[in-house]
Every structure is written in structure tokens, then in C-alpha cells.
Amino acid sequence: MAAPKKGRGSTGGQGRPGRALVLILIAMVALTGGMFLSGHTTPRLGIDLAGGTSITLKAKSQPGKPDAINETNMNTAVSIIERRVNGLGVSEAEVQTQGASNIIVNIPKGTNSAQAREQVGTTAQLYFRPVLTVTGGEPTPEGSASPSASGSGKASATPSAKATDPETASDPKTTPSASATTQGRAVTDGLKKDETPTPSASTSGAPASSDAPAATGKPDPATAALEKKFTALDCTDPAARAKAGDGVKPEEPTVACGSEGDAKYLLGPAEVSGTDVDDAKAQFDQQRGIWLVSMEFTDKGSKKFQTITKKLSSQQSPQNQFAISLDGEVVSAPQVNETLSGSAEISGSFTQQSAEDLANVLSYGALPLSFSEDTVTTVTAALGGEQLEAGLIAGAIGLALVVIYLVAYYRGLALIALLSLLASGILTYTIMALLGPAIGFALNLPAVCGAIVAIGITADSFIVYFERIRDEIREGRTLRPAVERAWPRARRTILVSDFVSFLAAAVLFLVTVGKVQGFAFTLGLTTLLDVVVVFLFTKPVMTLMARTKFFGSGHPWSGLDPKRLGAKPPLRRSRRVTARTDHPKEA
Amino acid sequence: MSRLGNLGARLYRGEVGYDFIGKRKIWYGVSILITITAILGLAVSGLNMGIEFKGGAVFTTDTKAKVSVSQAQEDAATASGHEAIVQELGNGGLRIQITEVDTQKADQIKAQLSEDLGIPEAKINADLVGPSWGEQIANKAWAGLGIFMVLVVVYLAIAFEWRMAVAALIALIHDITITVGVYALVGFEVTPGTVIGLLTILGYSLYDTVVVFDSLKEGTKGITKQTRWTYSEIANRSINGTLVRSINTTVVALLPVAGLLFIGGGVLGAGMLNDISLSLFVGLAAGAYSSIFIATPLVADLKEREPQIKALKKRILAKRAAAAAKGESVEDERDDRDDLDGDYDEDTQHAGAVVGQRRQTGGHGRTPRNRR
Q1: Could you tell me if A61 lies within 8 Å of chain B, comparing CB atoms?
Q2: Membrane-crossing residues (chain A) (predicted)?
Q3: Of B14, B203, B206, which is closest to A577 when you measure between CB atoms?
């Protein structure tokens, strides 16, 4: 592969080194300009340098479902985790897949990472449960009664009162729709009675829960405990909201909060689970001009759904509602007006976004993946800053040592090497800064290491070229032809070795996960930039420098003094070893 | 510079040089010895795997704790129910490492430690690793290693030839074995950082090897059409010719790594910087050694088995014996060779053939000095 396609011939570059230089200068100016225009003048820092918490989740394989861990499921899992984490008020949390079965969650410093972890680690579980009681989100419902719309009207994904108008109901598919007004009234009704018996009364009275052993009319201890829990539940507290449904089995009744915290529910056992949903889509109803969510059930799910809707449709409000509970939170609680099967639509005051969200939620539930926490790294801002500083100091020391070595050995030529390293540095820095917003690249500690190691790889390209030029001078050539004759061979070597280096980086990047990836990325990027810099910068500059008196005449300090290099006069004939075909074939 | 520069020139012209190929058996022996030591070390003492591979927790404090290191060790052991390793860091902070605790338990330990050490929880860095994580990292690293090796062998076989690919692969395995062996013998902790470093060596070790091979490939173009040198002799010249570059490259690569190692070890005490740079340092040194002492001699060995090259060697040796019998002077031959080179310079593509014929008519041997 070694023969480069785009490279100039051995003498071609001599005439127009300016063009390549202009090209790379334009690239540098454009990148720098772009960097300042985009406002991202520093590379985005990873958690280990900026501080924060980073969690690696691994999807657990599910028995009987060998294909469960696939790209689609992983992506939906990412969206749901993102929603959960960002729902905590973490605005800059980033969630991304890595490899086939890992999800990385990065939570910047200054957030409650413990709470975030709780949210992140759990499985997305979706159930359809009959609603037994619903009240506002406060712990003691009495007095708080502003049930009108607070029950669900604000929850974007929850169908609102509007949905119950006759027009909606006449929809052929018959929309299960919640009515906040009805809901509110039910709550009010409940409040008028003695507070404690309310839940049990409705529990026992609801045929929906007839097959629930825990709710058979006589309040057994479990039911009593549940009631107590329901009364005490404070859905306005996000932590309590998240915990409300913890550890509850689907076949048991439970308490749950509305996802906005403004309603709480006492729910019967799960009748239909997320796995029964085949597909859910957000759709725009042209006729009515509203967004709705349509669901398709699997055969089994369809039967179950038919049974529950039949039961529910004969109930009084609020027991004719079923709650769509996701991870213990009620996302939506539509009202059922008639028996449904096969497919269903949920309508309400959806926006496009909220309809898509709910459709996603329904789909997620249909594709549950459970995750285990594989790593949790918490880095304080202080340590992050320290690590960054250490990395930069190490880089500076490394660079300084390389510079000293190059100056000592190559003298004047070191100037060209330094300029090239500078060009490479500018390109690397600006590209890294721009890649932050573009593809979410974050500079972490291994990436800094990669960049430092890359100093060596980049400098090596110059060494290859300089040694070739010196070889040519030893042949007795003057500098200008030596620079041109050395190039094709140096170019070949640089391309071959950079290719191998890039291959290593690419394989590492594709195969590995976590920190290794950041390292591989930087290494690959700098290797590519090395080729660019050597072709478009080092070589043209070398050609130009060869025209100066200092280098051209082989000044002792230029690093190209023929005498010092041991070139043997007379210069007319080269003395070389026969079998070495030292001159370029490409010439 | 001047002395080194002159040395470079003399190496280049073949006036001085070390007979890498001729003494290859010694170096093979050295390498086999090192490799056996490495394998023995691996078998006897095993690798000291970090918590990333065993699962567990590492807590680091930013500030100086109120308690001593030994007290912290006790506290950590009580809090976790497992043995804890506590180190003091360069900045006065503590690094507490507890193995085999799961991520949930680690949270409790962290809270307990925060109380015991008198450091707020927000100021404790935690690195919690589940037991399956290390396995996953290791598996992926092995997969990466395998894929990379296959690709590189295919690439080298196409760009060069299969013998070079095989030799490069052996050199690569050699480097990795040595690095792993050093880790086993010295007892450095193996972390994902180590793995990163190890995998980077792959690229770097080959990078070096490829440069020597590149020069070897050029040097041996049209080798069968001349009767001056054997393959091994040219291979030796290639090594010597690129020796200055190899040394420079290795030095230039090692300098930034040394910077990392110094900062990582000296300032931060431990961590990713240190882990990566340590394995890189060992691996780079092994890589530079193997590309010169192992990879190229192996290619020469493999090549010398080829019938064509074998025949060539026979012809050359016979001719040299004949020349020695005639007692031709060295100086004559050298002048003659210069003439030939002059012509050689002007011709390009078919130079090898032309030179070969002329040489046969010239019928000269080689100077012992230049043969190297």
C-alpha cells in the first residue's frame, strides 16, 4: 500500500511548496476560527478531569432472550436513562452506549450522584395496573384538595379532561382517556369520607382487583400496610416518588406517584405488562388535529388487555382508569370506556414531544433490559483539576525533553521539527475542541496520555525524513536535491509505519470500551494529523529552508553540514553500497 | 552531534557496524532466556491484578486525613470487612483500596470512611468496580489483540512478504511476553491503564520493525541478480543503516513517556498516568530491542531457506573463495565498485540486472570490511 496516491513526486514538491503551506495554514485558521465562533475554545473535559460521577452499566443477558441486547434496545435504554437522569435536574448528564452491551452515564460534579445512581441502575419495567384510588400528591390529602386538574392535567403525558368529550369517544378505536375532572371528583368524593377507610373501601369494591389476593375486602395486614403507605406517601418529594414503587412485585397491589408528583395512586396488581406491548407509536390525528399514542399488543397481551378493559369499562371513576406505570411511576392513567383489544389509542393534550415520549415509554416497557453497575467512578473537582494539571505538566516535560534532544542532535533542523510539532499541536487542539460539541468527544486522562505518547510518533516522522536527507548528503549531494530525493523514500516509510500505528488505534477504538477508547481515539487522530503535517507542512518547509543560505550551504549549526555528516568529496560521484538502491524509484 | 553524526555516516556506509545477523544466535538465546524467565515469573508469582479486574473499590482523598495511614487501614478494614490497602499520596491524601466488595456495599463503606477519617463524603473520590468489569475489559483487550495481529500479518504479508509478517508477529509476541513478564516478576499492579499501555506497544513495536523492514525491502530488490552479498549481509546493513533512526525514535518516544512516568509516579502517587507510562516504558524498550535483534534476523533466517537465496549464497561463497585464492587486492575492488555505482545511479529500473552482469564480468569479491 505504501505508494501514496496523493503524494507529489520526488521533485514535484520543489516547485510549489507554497501551495501546501497555504493549504495547511487555511486549515489551521479555519479550525481556529471555527473554534472561536462555536465558543468552545477548550476541549470538553471528561469526568476524571472535570470531576463528577461516571457510571458504566452493562446489560444483563436475559435467559430465553438471546437477542435482547441489540442496538435498538440499547438505544431505547439510553433514551430512558437519559430521561431519568435529566429528570433529576441534571442538565448536562450524558448517556451513551459503548460497545455492544455497555452504557456510560456521566454526571457532572455538583449533582446528587447517589440519587442519580439509583435512577440509572434500575430496570425499566412497564405495567398496566387498574387504578383503585387516586389523590393529589401531598401526604395528607385533607385540605390539600385542589384536585381539579392537578391530578393529571399538568403531566404532559397524561391525557387531560378534553379527551373525554363525545367526539373523542366516538372515535372508532375508542380512546381510553383519562379525565382529570372525573379523577378530581373521585378524589374529592374520597376525601369526604373517613380518610383511612377510603383506600380499602375502594380496593374491596373494585372488581378490577377481584383476582388480587391482597384486596379481597377484608383488609389483611398487607393491605393495611399499603393503605398506610398510601396515606403517608409524599409525591412532591422526588426521592420519595422514586422510592414509592421499590421492590414491588407486579402481582401485588402498590402505591405509585404520578411522574410529575402531583398525583398519587393506589394501584391493583399488574394486569398487562410491558412485554405484552408489541409496538407503540406517536401519531398525529389529521382529523382532530391532535397527537395521540397508538399501541399494538401481542396476541397474549391483546387477550389480557381485553379482559382488563372489559372489567374496567363497567366501573365507576376512578376505578375505570388503568395506570401505565413505568418503574413504579404512573406515566399516564387513561380512562376506559369500553372493551378494547388488539390495539389501543391514548389521546389527550399531547404535544408531539410528549406523545413521542409516551410511545417510547410504552416501547421501552416492551423491551426490558436490566443492567448491572459495572463501574462507578466519583472524582472530586479537586482531584480532576490535579490530574489535568499533572497531565499537562507531564506533556510539557515530555515535549521539553524531546525538544532538547532534537536540538542537540539535529541543531538547525530541530527548528523545522518544532514548527511541525507546533502545527500538529494546533491542529490537534482545535480539532479536539471542536469534536466536543460535534460528536461528544471528551478529553479524559487516557486521552491526554495518548496525546503525549503521540509526541513521539509525530517526532519520529521528522526523524525518518531528516535521516534520509542526511543519507543523501552523505552521498555527496547538495541540500536541495538531497531534500527532494530523500522525500519519496521517507514518505513511504512514514506512510507504512503510520498505517500500522493507525491500525492499532482503530482496532483498539472499535473493540475496547471505557478508558481505552479515549486513548485509542487520540492516538488515531494524532497519527492521521501526523501524516497531514508531514505532507503539507514539514516537507514544504524543508524545501523552502533548503533555499536559504543557512541550511543550503550547510552551516555547521544547520544540522546539515556535509563535513560533520561525513560526506566524502569529490561530490561528483556518490559512493554507495551497490545493493542499496538508495535513490527513489518513483523519481 | 558530530561524533554521533559521524557514527551515523559510518554506519550508513557500512564502515562500522555490528554484526546483528551473524550473532543472531546469541540474541535469540538471550531472548529465549528472557521469555522463559517471563513465563516462569508469570507461572510462579502471577500477575498482581488491580481492583478493576477483581472488583472492589478504591477511595482517594483530596486532603490530608486526620488519621494515620495505619489507622485508616484499620478503619477501612472494619468498615468493609475485607482487608484494605492504604497508601499515602504525594499530595498528602490517602488511597484506600478494598477488594471484592460490590458497588452497593462500597457506598456504605464510603459513608463510614468519611466519618472515620473526618473528610466529607463529597471530598472522597471513589472508584467502584463490579467483578465482571475487569473480565470484560480483559476479554475485549484479548479480542483487540487478536484482531490486530491478524490484520497486521495480512497487511505486512501484502505490503512486504509473509516471512516479514511472521517475523514481525514473533517480535510482537516477544515484546508482549517480556512486558507481561516484567509485571509478573516486579509485581506491578495490572490495571486498565496497563492494558492500554500494552496495547499501544503493539503499534509502536511494529512501527519500529516496519521501518527496518522497509529499508530491508529496498536493499534486497533484485538481490538474485547480483552475486556480491548474501541476504543476511544486506539485512545486517539495513539494520545498521537504520540504527541511528531506531535509537533516535526510541529515545524520542521514551522521553515523553518518561515525563509521564515521573509526573504520574512522583506527583500523583498512582493512577492512570503512571500505569500507562510504566507499561509503555517497558514495552517500548522491548520493542526497540526486538525489531533490531529479533525481527530482522528472523527474516534473514527465513529467507535463507528459500532455494533461490540459498543458491545465491552458495554462488557468493564460492566466488569469494575463488577471489581469496587469487589474492586480489581490496583497493582494486573498491575502485571498481565505485565505477559500477556511478552507472547504477543513472539507471533506475533495471539497475540491478545491469550491475549483476557487470559484476559477473568483473568477477570481484567483497571487502571483508564492507561486508558488514
Answers
A1: no
A2: 20-39, 390-408, 415-439, 445-466, 494-513, 519-537
A3: B14
